């Protein structure tokens, strides 16, 4: 079964690499870019929301910080957005450190509400600090294709940048999941009091996960700014935070592949619904999308990744278990 897993992994990577080349349709290629981008953000959210068990509804804050920081570096300081992306990650980590000291000890809905308020505050600040953020007008990035500008004429180039981020995040998540740090996160998620009784510093571990998640989310926010070339304070909106969480929840929280699977399912569904129903029947696409989410949560509560687990279940019992069963049958 391990060989089958590796084979499927290789096939998935090959499909991801050559999939956008099959079509020249701009809409379809845009979906590929969005799947990779939102899959990366959901994977970053999964560290704190899935593994540590903290339901964050404010990750749009880190996403927006990355977008604004890299854009300000590019437009005002005339520095490369690649440097701006790293700076945005650092700023996001610093903001996560500050808000983390305040909220990291909260649990359940109190933590969720605190993160929600943090993103809302940043949205208000971005709207009113017009000298810095251009206020409600938003920020427009001139279209000047070039590697140094992190702006490309082809969606394929954007896709492969997003795919590189996604693969790096998935690999990092896998490494964390089999490391001591990952075990600490899972222990805190399952029973924080018991984990602390065993000597795990829950505050330090959760704060480290939050800082890493914030940095990863901000990098993707910088990519979003260079891809769309325009954004406004609504980038801090609650619906973006909820959307990020939904990708991981629908795909499977606390798993390596769940967030990516959720994005691969929901992003095309959203795009197709808007394409088919959004223009002819305004509002009906959101209704159908909501119905799909409700049905998914009701019938697949552990995420769609749980449907793939039987494929890797052992077909025969291990030798020791089989021998014990035979001995018991003889007696």
- Low-pLDDT sequence parts: 316-325
- First and last CA, distance: 33 Å
- How does the helix and strand content classify structurally? mainly alpha
Main sheet: strands, sense, barrel:
2 strands, antiparallel
For the secondary structure, the number of strands is 2
Radius of gyration equals 21 Å
The number of distinct helices, counting runs of at least 4 residues, comes to 14
Strand content: under 5%
Q: What strand line-up does the widest sheet have?
A: 1-2
Q: What is the 3D form?
A: globular
**Helix content range:** over 70%
Order of helices and strands: HHHHHHEHHHHEHHHH
What's the rounded overall pLDDT mean? 87
Give a structural overview.
The chain has a domain at 24-236. It has a two-stranded antiparallel ribbon. Mean pLDDT is 87; it is low at 316-325. It is built from 14 helices and 2 strands, in the order ααααααβααααβαααα. It has helices at 2-18, 26-51, 59-75, 81-103, 108-128, 130-133, 155-177, 180-190, 192-197, 202-228, 238-251, 258-278, 284-299, 319-330, and strands at 139-140, 230-231. It is mainly α and 331 residues long. It starts with a helix and ends with a helix. It is globular.
Q: How is the topology of this model organized?
A:
Layout: H1 2-18, H2 26-51, H3 59-75, H4 81-103, H5 108-128, H6 130-133, E1 139-140, H7 155-177, H8 180-190, H9 192-197, H10 202-228, E2 230-231, H11 238-251, H12 258-278, H13 284-299, H14 319-330
Antiparallel strand pairs: 1-2
Helix pairs in contact: 2-7, 2-8, 2-10, 2-11, 2-12, 3-4, 3-5, 3-10, 4-10, 7-10, 8-10, 11-12, 12-13
